[in-house]
Design goal:
heterodimer; A: mainly alpha; MetI-like fold; 85% helix; 0% strand; globular; B: 262 residues; mainly alpha
C-alpha cells in the first residue's frame, strides 16, 4: 500500500513538472503555471460567487443524475427482461448513445429555453443511455439459473425484477451508473456553457470571454478534482458490492 | 452466442428488424403529425419530412459543400491523430503497470470534464482555423483509444502469446503478428469511440468559434432563426455519424464473434 501511495505522489509530481515545462514553453497567454492555478483555485473556494455557481451546478446535476439513473434503470430492466424488445431497441440505444449530443443544443434551447430545465435536459440526454445500456446487458448476462428460480417461485415480472434480477445484476448496473453520472456531469456543464446564466459552466464561459486563463484553468482543475473524487468513490462502492455485498 | 438453429434465427432476426423499422417509422410519423397539427410550433421544430427535404436541398445545391469538406477533413485528421497517439500511449501504459495504475483515476474521470474549455487556449496557440479544431478533436478522442488499447492487450489469451513465443517471433513481430490481431475487437471499440468523441470535439469547437464547418453553419442558422437550414444540417450530421457508427459496430460484433470473446 505504501509503495502505491509513493507511486501516486511521483505521478502527480511528474504531471506538475510537465505542466510547468509546457507553461514555460507556450507562455502566459495560453497557460497559467500550476502554482498560480492552484493558488487561484483555493482563492475561488473562498469567494461567495463561486459557491453560488457551484450550488446552481450541483442542484441541476443532482436532479439530472436522479432522472438519468432512475430512467436508465427502468428502461434497462425492461429491455433486459424482454428479449425481443431488447433486440429491437438495442441498436437504437447504441445510436442514441453515440450521436454527438452537443449538436442538439439548438433543439434543447428551443424546447426548454435558457435556465435550469435546459441544463437538466442536457445532463439527462448524456447520462440516461449508458445507464440503460449497461443495465440491459447486466440483466441479460444474469445466469439462467436465476431466471429459472424466479419462474419456479412464480414471481411476477415486477417481483422478479426487484428481488432477483436487480441484486444479481447490481455490480454491472453500478458500473453503468458510474459512467452515466460522469456523462451527466459533462452534459450539465455543456448545458451551462451554452445555455445558462448561472453555474460553473457559465463562470467558465465568462472567463473564456475575457480570456482569463488562470480562471479557466482553476475552474477546470476544480471540476476535475470533483469528477475524479466522485468517480473514485463510486469505484469503491462498486468494489464493495462486488466482493463484500 | 447460444446454439440456435439457423432457420428460426434468421426468421427472428428479420422480425426484430421489421419491428425496429416500424417503431422508427411510427415515431417519425407521430412527430410529423404533431408538427403538422400545430402541437409543436414551427419555431421549435419543423416536420421530419421538411428536415429531409432541407437535407436533400443542401446536398443537391452543394452550397455548403465547402463547410462539409472542412469538417470531414478535420475530423479525419483528428481521428487519425487520436487513434495513433492513443494506441501508443495505451500500449506503453500496458507495458508499465505501475504507471498505468496511477494514471487510472485520471483516465476514468477524463470524460467528465468539458474538454472544450481548452479550446480558447488552443485558439491562442494555433490561431482560428484547422489546427486548433484538429487538436481539439484529437484531445476528445485519444482517451477512449488509450483505455480500449489497454483493455485489448489485457484480453490477449496467454495461449496465443505462448504460441507466438513457440514460433520464436521477435518482440516486434510478436506485437504485430500476434497481439495486435488478438486485441483487434477491443481496438475497434476504441476506434469507434474515438470517432464519436472526435466528432463531438470538432463540432463543439465549430460552435464556439470557427471560420467555417458544419457546426459553424448550424450555429449560424440557429442565430438567424433559419430552422430549415439548421435542421437540414443537423440531420445530415447525425445521419452521417449514425451510419459510420453502425458500420463500425457491425464490424466490431463480427470480430468479437470470430475471436469468441467478449
Amino acid at each position: 500500500m505504501k509503495s502505491s501511495r509513493f507511486d501516486y505522489l511521483v505521478f502527480v509530481a511528474g504531471l506538475l513538472v510537465l505542466w510547468q515545462l509546457v507553461y514555460w514553453a507556450v507562455g502566459a497567454d495560453v497557460l497559467s503555471s500550476p502554482f498560480a492555478t492552484i493558488a487561484r483555485a483555493l482563492e475561488l473556494l473562498q469567494t461567495e460567487a463561486f459557491w453560488v455557481h457551484a450550488k446552481a451546478t450541483t442542484s441541476a446535476f443532482a436532479i439530472a443524475s436522479v432522472i438519468s439513473i432512475a430512467g436508465g434503470i427502468v428502461i434497462g430492466l425492461w429491455l433486459g427482461l424482454r428479449r425481443f424488445a431488447g433486440d429491437v431497441a438495442s441498436p437504437i440505444l447504441g445510436s442514441l448513445y453515440s450521436i454527438p449530443k452537443i449538436t442538439l443544443y439548438p433543439l434543447i434551447l428551443l424546447i426548454f429555453g435558457l435556465g435550469i430545465s435546459a441544463k437538466i435536459a442536457f445532463g439527462v440526454i448524456h447520462g440516461i443511455f449508458p445507464v440503460a445500456i449497461f443495465t440491459m446487458n447486466a440483466v441479460r448476462n444474469v445466469a439462467p439459473v436465476y431466471h429459472r428460480t424466479a419462474h419456479i417461485m412464480r414471481l411476477s415480472p415486477v417481483q422478479s425484477a426487484a428481488t432477483i434480477m436487480t441484486p444479481a445484476a447490481l455490480p454491472e448496473i453500478l458500473a453503468g451508473i458510474r459512467v452515466g453520472i460522469a456523462l451527466t456531469l459533462l452534459g450539465t456543464l455543456i448545458g451551462e456553457l451554452f445555455a445558462s446564466t448561472s453555474g460553473i459552466g457559465f463562470a467558465l464561459v465568462r472567463a473564456m470571454g475575457i480570456h482569463a486563463v488562470t480562471d479557466i484553468l482553476a475552474l477546470t482543475l476544480l471540476i476535475f478534482v470533483f469528477a475524479a473524487s466522485l468517480n473514485a468513490s463510486l469505484h469503491l462502492v462498486e468494489r464493495w458490492v462486488r466482493h463484500g455485498g | 452466442m447460444t446454439g440456435r438453429t439457423a432457420a428460426p434465427r434468421r426468421w427472428r432476426v428479420s422480425k426484430v428488424g421489421a419491428t425496429r423499422a416500424a417503431l422508427i417509422v411510427l415515431t417519425l410519423a407521430l412527430l410529423e403529425l404533431l408538427c403538422r397539427v400545430g402541437v409543436l410550433d414551427r419555431v421549435t421544430i419543423i416536420p421530419p419530412t421538411e428536415m429531409a427535404s432541407a437535407l436533400w436541398d443542401i446536398v443537391r445545391s452543394g452550397r455548403f459543400n465547402a463547410d462539409i469538406a472542412f469538417t470531414l477533413l478535420n475530423t479525419a485528421a483528428a481521428i487519425v491523430l487520436a487513434i495513433l497517439a492513443g494506441f501508443f500511449v495505451g500500449a506503453a501504459l500496458h507495458v508499465v503497470p505501475r504507471l498505468r495504475r496511477v494514471s487510472e483515476p485520471l483516465l476514468s474521470a477524463y470524460y467528465a470534464i468539458p474538454t472544450f474549455v481548452f479550446y480558447p487556449l488552443l485558439i491562442v496557440t494555433f490561431g482560428v482555423g484547422r489546427a486548433a479544431l484538429i487538436v481539439m478533436g484529437a484531445m476528445f478522442g485519444i482517451v477512449a483509444m488509450i483505455v480500449n488499447t489497454m483493455l485489448g492487450l489485457d484480453h490477449v489469451p496467454p495461449a496465443v502469446d505462448k504460441a507466438g513465443s513457440m514460433l520464436r517471433l521477435g518482440p516486434m513481430r510478436q506485437l504485430i503478428l500476434v497481439r495486435l490481431p488478438a486485441a483487434a475487437p477491443h481496438l475497434l471499440t476504441g476506434v469507434r469511440l474515438a470517432v464519436a468523441y472526435s466528432v463531438i470535439g470538432i463540432v463543439a469547437g465549430e460552435f464556439i468559434l470557427a471560420t467555417s464547418g458544419m457546426g459553424k453553419r448550424i450555429a449560424f442558422a440557429y442565430d438567424n432563426f433559419d430552422n430549415r437550414n439548421m435542421y437540414g444540417m443537423l440531420l445530415l450530421l447525425l445521419v452521417g455519424v449514425i451510419i459510420v457508427n453502425g458500420v463500425l459496430t457491425h464490424w466490431e460484433n463480427r470480430l468479437h464473434r470470430r475471436f469468441g470473446q467478449r
